[in-house]
Design a protein that fits this description.
The chain is 54% helix and 14% strand. It is built from five helices and four strands; from the N terminus they run H-E-E-H-H-E-E-H-H.
Length: 160
């Protein structure tokens, strides 16, 4: 249940922030919050991270469906007491679903977080995906994801 709560919170926060931007800013508009460091800049990203593969919406929708289904399937192999691992999976799930909604609805992803020290503009869903993925990788690296007693792969039932 913990994974789902985190995922839903990410999606809700992502949707609220994107709706605020779409309803209150013009495309391309930039509002300095900390001048020269952090701005809210409304863009629509037709590609993946960093604008890669622009215009391939159907491809991204397909990939996202596969990733979401894989996460939904494999997350059940993470023991319930492993809150950190479940938190990371919730962030990844929520982030993927947040951008998935944008692609389905608009065909692009709404981005608006513009740190001027970083070239790319991103959103809450992107942040959740990146933070969740990095933290989960660290948990795996330091063997703290609860998978040390029995690896995930060994717990997947064999297919005959």
């Amino acid at each position: 249940m913990y994974t789902w709560i985190v995922a839903v919170l990410v999606v809700v926060l992502d949707r609220i922030t994107k709706m605020l931007v779409v309803n209150n800013m013009s495309l391309g508009q930039s509002i300095p919050i900390i001048d020269g460091f952090f701005h809210l800049t409304f863009i629509r990203n037709p590609g993946a991270a960093f604008g890669l593969f622009a215009g391939r919406t159907a491809f991204f929708i397909g990939i996202t469906v596969v990733v979401l289904l894989a996460i939904l399937y494999f997350q059940r192999y993470i023991p319930g007491e492993q809150k950190a691992a479940r938190f990371c999976i919730g962030l990844i799930l929520g982030g993927a679903f947040g951008n998935f909604i944008d692609r389905l609805y608009w065909g692009t992803v709404v981005d608006f977080l513009d740190f001027r020290i970083w070239v790319y503009i991103f959103n809450v869903a992107d942040s959740a995906l990146v933070v969740g993925s990095l933290l989960f990788a660290l948990l795996l690296f330091f063997n703290k994801a609860g998978l040390d007693k029995e690896p995930v792969v060994d717990r997947i039932p064999p297919r005959y």
